[in-house]
Amino acid sequence: MMAISCFRKSFVMLLILSLLIFPLSCVTTKYVSIAEEKIPSDTYTEKGMSAEIEIKPMTPQTLGLPEKGPLKITVKDAVLIALENNRSLAVERINPSIQKTFEDQERAVFDPTVEAEVSTKRNNSKSLNQSGSYTESSLNDVHQGSISLKEFFPTGTFVEAEAITETTDSALYNEPYSSTRLGLSVTQSLLRGYGTDVNLALLRQSQIETNITQYELRGFSEYLLAHVETTYWDYALSQRQIEIVEESLKIAKQQIADTEEMIRVGTMAEAELAAVQAEVAAQQQGLINARSTMESTRLRLLRFLNPPGQSFWDREVNLVHPPTLPEIKLDEVETHVEVAIRMRPEMNQAKLDIQKEKIEIVRTKNGMLPRMDLFITFGKTGYADSFSGSVNDINGENYDVKVGLNFEYPIFNRDAEAQHKRALLRRDQAEMALDNLKQLVELDVRNAYIEVNRTKEQITASTATRKFQEEKLRIETEKFRVGLSTNFFVAQAQRDLLASRISEVQAVVNYLKALISFYRLEGSLLERRGIAAPGHDSMEYSTKNK
Fold this sequence. Notes:
By secondary structure, the chain is of the alpha+beta class. The chain has helices at 2-21, 75-85, 87-107, 196-199, 201-265, 273-305, 333-343, 345-367, 387-392, 414-481, 487-522, 525-528, and strands at residues 34-35, 71-73, 113-128, 135-153, 157-170, 177-189, 317-319, 371-384, 399-408, 538-539.
């Protein structure tokens, strides 16, 4: 009786142990920390661009977009429409959700499982009688049912509770025979497979993969935003270029009329007409090219915006913002480099890759250990001539208990050692890749910083050039009126002025585009436009190997 009491106490302790282990199935460990984010003080807002843009599901009505007719949009409108409607972005948005399903798969490893089985079997056989003098036939019907609850815990513990009942109806006996057993078994890994670090490794790696897709989505969003704004300003440039060429062409045509009149009255030789006609033809050719460029840019902008309506390719686009010079001052280039290293999506992805490899090292290092599991099985069985009787007999003195160790170890263990070595090499490779990427990011930012300053200086230079060309044309025109110049020199001055006027607008657009590219390479474009996007948090990284 003392032995039975002792086993009952052990059974109760095993139940308590399983209840204590159960909550660990939901354990997740935070494996990243968030660095405080700072952006240089040169954040600027385009004219009419809101500093805070909250992205919500929008409809054409909430955006104020007609489904037909011309689109009249600002830079902010273009950004919002593209973020809401662009099909490429819609495709990319699905990736984090797809990756999240892999997380659910890894969590499913720790989900409890219920198994049940019902079977019936008939066995018609012959066997020797007890004296061994002859054989006798026997017909046995066996009815069996079982149900079990299994669960694997992140601690490396496997718990199974089961109930089995069996009823045998044999021709050799007058009454059927039933047995019912309730059992609990616990298996705990002591070496390989022990602890949450190794058993949660795949889940944590899957969570990191989900974070990586968030940064990929962020990078694509910045790429899209940069292209939308760049195309917006290219389209504005095309429109302004057409206006400038049309104005110049109008003047050139007027000069043809004046020259023809002067030839008619005999104050100018007919040979002077060729230079003016050549200039008009050249400007008409330039106007054709400008209109073609504007049309191509309009289609590209519409592709990014994907506005409502069945067919939007023929819709006109009217821009509210002309290219204007924003008043900003960049910080020192080192400050922008620091921001890029902290905020560039590629940098954060590379840091997450290193975290993945470090987790893999923990997993593969544990895999080199021998397998040694402690197992405990305890059960109570009842016997009777019926199912209900066998259930009631479970409280009797019949029991079974088993305690032991399982041990397994490959003699050479080359597979586990190869996996661990590969994990170490990949970790080293990921760290070297991060160092290389950091250098490339700094190169990008420094080159973009130089380009921003260059394009800003070009604005002043192009303005001065345009003023000198205006004065040159004025002087050449006055000289022509008093007979000291020819149509050729006047036409040449007109051509130079036309080029300088276009170059002046081009310089402003180039500066705007250089700023957009600079902020994208810095990784701060979304923040500077007040747009919240996944992957905002910067990842901390330590080179200390675990």
